[in-house]
């Protein structure tokens, strides 16, 4: 199994990328890597070249660049070269911690959509924070912030999410919910009302109805589908609030005198476990589902461990033959016709 | 100053409502109350009838009822009677902890919109969780979850939010931001791009641009305006996450043995202060801005203190003559014409 890696993307690139790749290489004997990037910078960082090939590139796509233009113009960038390797069949998956928009554009335009998929869905795995819930994680899509999702896209996301939950986490008959502004069938704007009906009609989906964003992390569903606009607003609000709660507690401890500081020392394992549970990097990168190969983007701030975890996620996606399953399912024309009604 | 109170609305009604009214009455010498409700239940709860009039009603609007139908049919409900008292000029403001949709419908159809306001905005005051920020609270609207806001509504919300921040919190020249899916001017769907331009054109607004939902509680703005759909999704996600973080910490303490429990005792003041800061009831109720009188709804689960705090908020709204200021501003036809362009 070969993974094409954009070694230059991300705040800590190339050091964190190379270190993460080496960790993952040591964990999985069947993994090989092609690292695309500035060889002068990358080569000295590689401690052991076993199963790692380096390919020099001359350009980089920066964080603020306009994504589509960047991937069209910078043909010799580490990102475009890595995506092209997948397109040409030289690698099985594409990984980057760089400019999110550019990763999405490279995925859509270079790696390409699976036949039958109208629009790929950016997918995050979120923690379930309810200690009473048996559910450990949630598959959540589309978090791509685009405001143009149509009904049919959300129905396709339900299948993409279902396959992900089954293949990656072994969830049996995953519970699928629709993110909406109320629990009842008739809630939401025309798009959400229509999607509710379409999802409810599908015999092969375990559709459990609407979930409100207040219950995003409550473990009520295994997969939550949403238009990109709403999913992104809810996800960022949730991440921002988690960060702010921790900073308020930290601030209280710093200003709370010796009692608070001793209290912190005693509670440190609890804070660590909550912090670990709520941290985005625990759950790997964001996956662009619906493409012909795994295209995965980690946070720009990822360290080596986060990079290695994300590569483990890609390894599982390829091993479990999730893409083949998706191609197979959407390749049947009758599925698509039914879905469109 | 007279406040018409729906004594029967809310999970803890009428006991918490009556107790909260008495607390507020004891705090403000210029406050009088008319309590609408089942006299057999309400009367025994009132300890001291000073400045409290009771008016018997025979119906109640339940939490699950369809709002518009409920307020049309249940003419002798505590909620409709209280709203009607404001409409008839017998009271200065209307307060309820009951069915949110019905409170909004009673506000719009019975109390009525200010001339020049196309759609009132449901407004919440949120905590600013950033310890480094001087800003203490945020005025946030429209949280009404409706998906049909137009450009002009959001421009009007900017003024309603500005007046609220100035009159209620004494904020000078409040910083106004637009909730959007990115920081730059050209982010978002056509509605958000257009609203950005309209807000930016207004000389009398201190418009600072877009804010993403990840920065909702970061103190970057004094007022954040949004369409109701997005605002509601982000607010509920934030509330849900805060709740889940606290429950994860609680769970960790319960299962963390004696060390964790002693740690908790030492850190209790910190948890209390964070819990207080993040609690919705600290900041009073949700206000339907743009109506001819204050219409305020507290959480259904409000206790007596939350009820009293919400009444204090109404007291300040009336004392500061915010409604008169709004009527005056929107009454000038040229403002509206300009805003529409």
Automatic annotation (TrEMBL), chains A, B:
Gene Ontology MF annotations: phosphate:acyl-[acyl carrier protein] acyltransferase activity
GO cellular component labels: cytoplasm
HAMAP family per UniProt: PlsX
Protein's UniProt name: Phosphate acyltransferase
Enzyme Commission number(s): 2.3.1.274
Organism: Candidatus Limosilactobacillus merdipullorum
Pfam families: FA_synthesis
Localization annotation: Cytoplasm
Major subcellular location class: cytoplasm
Source organism superkingdom: Bacteria
Catalytic reaction(s) noted: a fatty acyl-[ACP] + phosphate = an acyl phosphate + holo-[ACP]
GO BP of this protein: fatty acid biosynthetic process; phospholipid biosynthetic process
Associated pathway: Lipid metabolism; phospholipid metabolism
Swiss-Prot/TrEMBL keywords: Acyltransferase, Cytoplasm, Lipid biosynthesis, Lipid metabolism, Phospholipid biosynthesis, Phospholipid metabolism, Transferase
Subunit record text: Homodimer. Probably interacts with PlsY.
Protein purpose: Catalyzes the reversible formation of acyl-phosphate (acyl-PO(4)) from acyl-[acyl-carrier-protein] (acyl-ACP). This enzyme utilizes acyl-ACP as fatty acyl donor, but not acyl-CoA.
InterPro entries: FA_synthesis, Phospholipid_synth_PlsX-like
Family that this chain belongs to: Belongs to the PlsX family.
Enzyme class (EC, first level): transferase
């Amino acid at each position: 199994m070969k993974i094409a890696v954009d070694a230059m993307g991300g705040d800590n690139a190339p050091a964190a990328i190379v270190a993460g790749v080496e960790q993952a290489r040591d964990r999985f004997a069947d993994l090989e890597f092609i690292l695309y990037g500035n060889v002068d910078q990358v080569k000295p960082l590689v401690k052991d070249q076993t199963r790692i090939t380096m390919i020099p590139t001359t350009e980089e796509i920066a964080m603020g660049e306009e994504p589509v233009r960047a991937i069209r113009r910078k043909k010799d960038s580490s990102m475009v070269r890595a995506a092209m390797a997948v397109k040409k069949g030289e690698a099985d998956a594409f990984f980057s911690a760089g400019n999110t928009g550019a990763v999405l554009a490279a995925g859509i335009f270079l790696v390409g959509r699976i036949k039958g998929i109208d629009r790929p869905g950016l997918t995050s795995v979120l923690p379930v924070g309810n200690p009473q819930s048996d559910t450990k994680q949630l598959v959540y899509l589309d978090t791509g912030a685009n405001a143009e999702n149509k009904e049919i896209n959300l129905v396709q996301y339900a299948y993409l999410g279902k396959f992900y939950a089954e293949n990656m986490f072994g969830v049996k008959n995953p519970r699928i919910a629709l993110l909406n502004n109320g629990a009842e069938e008739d809630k939401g704007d025309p798009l959400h009302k229509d999607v509710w009906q379409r999802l409810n009609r599908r015999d092969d989906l375990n559709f459990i109805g609407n979930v409100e964003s207040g219950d995003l992390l409550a473990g009520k569903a295994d997969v939550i589908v949403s238009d990109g606009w709403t999913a992104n607003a809810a996800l960022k609000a949730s991440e921002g609030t988690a960060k702010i709660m921790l900073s308020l507690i930290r601030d209280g401890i710093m200003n709370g005198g010796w009692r608070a500081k001793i209290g912190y020392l005693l509670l440190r394992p609890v804070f660590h476990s909550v912090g670990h549970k709520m941290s985005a990097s625990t759950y790997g990168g964001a996956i662009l589902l619906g493409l012909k190969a795994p295209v995965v983007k980690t946070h720009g701030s990822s360290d080596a461990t986060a990079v290695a975890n994300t590569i483990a996620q890609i390894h599982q996606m390829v091993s479990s033959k999730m893409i083949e399953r998706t191609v197979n399912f959407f390749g049947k024309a009758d599925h698509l016709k039914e879905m469109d009604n």
